[in-house]
Amino acid sequence: MAALTVHPQPDQPITEGRALPQHLRLTLLGVGAMNSPRFAPAGLLVRHAGHAVVLDGGPGADPPRRVDAWLVTDEQAELRAPLRRMAAERGLVPRAADLTLGALRLRACPVVHTSHPTFGYRIELDGLLAVWAPEFRRFPAWAAGADLLFADGSSWTRPITFRGGVGGHASVREVGAEAARHRVRRLVYAHIGRPCIRAMDAGQAPEPGEWGREGRTYTLSG
Question: Mind listing the pLDDT tens digit for each residue in 17-42?
Fold first, then answer.
């Protein structure tokens, strides 16, 4: 797995003797699981200090034309071909990698999901921590203490296990319990599958946590 480092030019003056507030803006480009009948593929736009990074996404989950990097949780995902085309239009190659943009750091961390390497991301900025982990069978311990976690919402009450027991998806019930145990401050489900769409249509809501909304921006400040 490669590590990407970009050295940005400052886009605002530094005020001597006074720390400027830090803002991390996270916009959901899509919240759908594979072949969702309702939502675009799960994707996140991360913005800070004039820079932008895309995580996952796909057709219908379109980021701005100008982005600094396109990171993915699974380099062998079924959407890899359209993702490569979308990234190439912006002069980029989608990859699973660590990335540093000034004070902003994204770390690719392994998750239990399938038979080949898959990852989530710790998004760190001066003591702020967001986590992008849209697919996993086992709750990632490295997400503990996150200010905001975008998590797997593929299944409502029962986990999904892949053939051969090589991985799968945790259920919303499991994720909620584990997020509370790992002291996650805010939990947003951002990879919503058909069982959860049926729950949404029945007026059910996760507890703890909330359904992700396409186009919504979540801001962390420190």
Answer: 444 568 999 999 999 998 899 999 99
Q: How far apart are CA 201 and CA 138, in angstroms?
A: 27
Write out pLDDT tens, residues 122-141: 999 999 999 999 999 899 99
Q: How many residues are present in the chain?
A: 222
**How far apart (Å, rounded) are the C-alpha atoms in residues 121 and 58?**
18
Token duo for residue 28: 């959901």
Tell me if residue 179 falls in helix, strand or coil. helix
For 48-57, b/e burial (b = at least 16 CB within 10 A) is bbebbbbbbb
pLDDT (tens digit, 9 = 90+) per residue, 149-181?
A: 999 999 999 887 777 766 788 999 999 999 999
**Locus of tokens 């030019």:** 9
Sequential DSSP letters for 48-73: ETTEEEEEE-BTTB---S--SEEE-S
Q: What is the mean pLDDT of residues 193-198?
A: 96
Q: How far is CA 34 from CA 52, 58, 157, in A?
A: 24, 10, 18
3-state secondary structure of 139: coil
Distance CA 190, CA 153 (A): 6
CA–CA dist 157, 56 (Å, integer): 25
Reduced to 3 states, what is the DSSP secondary structure of residue 76?
coil
C-alpha 212/C-alpha 28 separation (Å) is 7
